[in-house]
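job 3f2a | input accepted
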Amino acid sequence: FDTMPCSNNLIWDIRKRTVGSNEINNFTRSNYLGRKEFVQRLKLEATLDVHQGSVNTICWNDTGEYILSGSDDEKLVITNPYSRKVKASITSWHQSNIFSAKFMPQTNDSMIVSAAADGKIFLTNVERGSNTDPVLQYHCHNGATYEILTVPTDPHSFLSCGEDGTIRWFDVRVSPGCWQTNCKKDILIDCRRAVTSMSISPVESFYLAAGCSDSSVRIYDRRMLGTIATGCQTGSGVAGMCVRFVPRHLANKSCRVTSLAYSRDGRQVLASYTSEYLYLFDPKDDRGRELKGPSQETKDEEPPQKRLRLRGDWSDTGPLSRPESERGRDGESRPGVSLMQRMSDMLSRWFEDASVAQNSGGPRPQPRPRVGPVQGSRLHQEAVGPGDPGQSQLDPTSSFSSNSPSAVGTQGSGSSGEAVLSLTYSTQGTTSSSVQLGFSSARSTDHREPPRMRGPQHVPETRETSPLSRVEGMEQEPEAATQAPGEWMERHVVYPSERRSAAARIQEIFRRRKEKKELADCETRRITKPSAEKVYKGHRNSRTMTKQCCFWGDQFVLSGSDCGHIFIWDRETGEHVMLLEADQHVVNCLQPHPYEPLLATSGIDSNIKIWSPLEETPSFNRILAEEVVTRNELMLEETRNTITVPASFMLRMLAQLNHSIRADSEDNEEEEIAF
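job 3f2a | predicted structure (675 res):
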C-alpha cells in the first residue's frame, strides 16, 4: 500500500469495532500505522468520565477490549472504550494516589496488581466485587512505589520500583504477602537511587531497563539476579548490569527518568528525562565510552538558583500557560491569577531577592512591588553546593531587609525588632535538593533548629516516606490527601534533630563511596555505555513523575507534556508531525492500542480520552506547533530548578513570622514602659 486509504474506508474500518468485528486487526495495522497521514487525522473520539481525580495510569488488556485505569481518587476502573461502559469499579485499599496498575497475565483479566504513593502494592481479584479485600498485600517499599511491571508469559510474578532505590521481584507462590516496611527478602536490585521507571524488552524479557534519579538508565540481565526469597540472592552493586546509559551533558547531574520504552523489536530504548528531552539509544552501542562528560570542576562552579512553587499551583501548565516574559507584559494584576500562583510568585521573589544580595556583595537591593499577603521582611539565604562526595561547601551568607511594613503582624520599630526569615537551599540530597526554613529576630538569642523541607531519602529513620507531606506536631492538611499526581519535587516538612541530620550526612558519605566503587566496577566489567542516537525536543516535562513516552508502530514517538498537548515525532528524523490538545493542564499517560489505530491518553483531567483517525483529511497546524514549542523551551528553563512545596510550608512560615513580629513588638512596648 503506497497511498493512504480513502477516508470512508478508514472510518468504516474503525467503526467495525463497535459491532464486534475482529477481522480488521492486522489489516488496519498494516494499512494505517506508520503513515504521517494517519497521525495527522487523529481526532478525539470519546471521553470516558470514570474517575473523580487525576488519572495517573492506564493500560489495555491483551485483547485491547478493556482499559484499566488508576487515579487520585484511589479507585481502579475497568472500562470498555467502545461501548463506553464500566465493567468494574474497585475502591482500592490504597491511601494515596495510585501510580501504576496492570492486569496480571493469563488470568483472564481477573487479577489486578496496583501500586501507589503510599508505597503499598495490592493484588486484587476483580471478580470478588468492588469493595473486597485485596488478595495479597506487599508493604515492603520504604517510600512511594512508582511502577509495576508484569512479564507477558508469567502469571505468578511481577516487578516493582520505588523511591527507596530498590527494584523488587515478587513471586506470589514464594512470597504470599508481606507487611514489613523496608523488607529485604524480595529485593532484586538495590540501585541506591530512586528508581522511577522500568521497561522489559518485548523480545528478550530477561532484559530489564531501569531509570534512576542519577540520570542513568541501567539495563540488567535478570537471569543473573535473584532474591533472598528465591534463595538466589546475587547482592547489590553492578551484578547483572550490562548497559548504563547517561546523556553526556547530564553525567554530573541528577535528572529523573519518568518513562522508559523498548521499541517493538527490542533494539532501541526511549527515555524521558525531567526538565529535559527524550533520548533514543541502542543498548548494544558502546560509543558512549569514547565520549567525555563535563568535568567535576564544571559541576561545582555554581549551584543552580532554586525557585519555589506551592503544591496545587498549576498556573504554569496547560494550553493557556505562558512564560514569565509574556505574563510580564500583561502585568501582575491581570485577571485570572489564582491565589496559589500569587503565593508561589511571592516565595520565588524571596529567593531571587536573597540571591541578588548574595551575588552582588554590595548594598541590599530594594524589593519590587509584590502581590500577596507579605510585603517585606529581612531575608537570609545560604547556598550549599554539592562539593566532593561526603562534603559540603557552605557559601557566604547574605541578607536582604526591607523597611516596608508587614501585613501579617505589627512590625517593631527599628532593626532590633525586625523578623528574620531564613531560607537555606542544599543540593546534598540523594535524589533532590532540600529547603530549610527558619525564623528568628534580630534581637533573639533562640537558635532553635529550623524545619527542613527535604526528600524521602534525607530521613532514613522516618517510616513516613511517601511523597505526602507531613508536619510534626500538626494535623495533616486536607490538600495533602488529595495531592497533585506524582509531583516529582514534593517534600516532607520535619524538624530533624542534630543526631538525625548527622546520620543523614554519614549515610550520604557511604552512599557516594559505594557509587564511586560501582562506577569503577563498571569500567572493570566493561559494561556497555551507549550514546544518544536521537533527541526529541519541543515538549515540557517538569511537573509530574508519571509523564510517559512510547513508540507507536515503527515510525512514531509520542510523549505527554506540561502544556497539555500530545507530541508526535517522526522516529527517524525527529520532526514534529502532529500536536494534539488533550488536557487542561498536563498529559501524563499515552497507551496505543495493541492492534488498532487507537490511542488512549490521560492526565490531570479526571477522564480518559480516546483518539482515532476520524478526520476527513490530514491536518497539522505547524505555526501553532512552533509557538507551543517556543513557549515550552522558555518555560522549561524557568521551571528547571523549581521546587514544589506543600501549602503547610507557607502557612507555617506566615504563622511563625507573625508570632515573631508580635513578640518583638510586645518586647518593645515593655521596654518603652520600663523606660
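job 3f2a | The chain has a mean pLDDT of 74.
job 3f2a | closed
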